Amino acid sequence: MAEVFLDALKDSSIAAPFLLAIYLLIEFLESNANAKRRTVKLLNGKLAPLVASGVGLVPQCGFSVMAADLYCQRYLKLGTLVAFFVATSDEALPILLTNVKTLPVVWIVLLVKAVYAICLGYFINLFDKRPLAVDYELADEHGCCHHEMSDEHKRGFWGFVKHPLLHTLKIFVYIFVINAVFGLLLYYFEQPILDFTARLGAAQSLFTALIGLVPNCASSVILTGMYVDGIVGLPALLAGLVSNSGIALAILFKQKGTLKRNLLVLALMYCLGALCGIVGWLFTLI
């Protein structure tokens, strides 16, 4: 059981530098209007889903956490957030790349996730009417990282890094707790999950998409392991990996006053993952 907590600590520690980097960037943007204007224009612009898809493909769940945080601050449209999440590969790519049997499917996974993420991003953004931070100001009091602007930005190095460090620490603790809790659940119930999935047949994608929603890096490991062991096919693997966004969903639900919006994101990720798997399964029948 000790390895569960060690794995939780490891996964949380890997994400921490990426989180600190993005929070330092946000702090810099707060104090630099021109840099903020260019960054927000990129995140809100025509290339946003394309950029999100490219960054999301990097096998590191810290980027999906970054996207969740930026979405809370109204820097991202819903479609751009979904593009980040759909493209996120987490631990799946390294496992597929290090297994000779799965090397041929790596490009299929990458291509499907990238194209799917870009198309969904642009399509969903057409219907997202939520006002963004187009005035180049930070989000309202409901944002993830909102804090009062003060003279601290003028107080040297400590004034600049204080809020990013504190926020990174808070998120690190939160990620560690979530990873540990779900790690324990998977530790005790992994074999029943594998046995149940093996019996589902054509309905596997409906269940693997649900596994993908588990806010823990272990979910992508389990999904990939099931594919390597022949328990699920490629469509079911894609369903799980599309719906998986690492720990990011837990970060979204951490925020107060955004439950309906977060439930929409949760439902979208499940449906999009299951749909991808079902379509993939239908193609295998042709």
Characteristic key phrases:
single chain; 286 residues; mainly alpha; 13 helices
Characterise the protein shown here.
It is a single chain. This protein has helices spanning 2-31, 33-44, 48-56, 62-72, 78-87, 92-97, 103-125, 156-198, 204-212, 217-228, 234-243, 248-253, 259-285. The chain has 286 residues and is mainly α. The protein has one domain. The relative contact order is 0.14.
Gist of the model:
With 286 residues, the chain is mainly α.
Topology record:
Layout: H1 2-31, H2 33-44, H3 48-56, H4 62-72, H5 78-87, H6 92-97, H7 103-125, H8 156-198, H9 204-212, H10 217-228, H11 234-243, H12 248-253, H13 259-285
Helix pairs in contact: 1-2, 1-4, 1-8, 3-5, 3-7, 4-5, 5-7, 5-13, 7-11, 8-10, 9-11, 9-13, 10-11, 11-13
**Span from first to last CA?**
45 Å
Unreliable spans are 135-154
- How many domain modules? 1
The total of helices stands at: 13
Integer-rounded radius of gyration:
19 Å
The portion of residues assigned to helices is over 70%
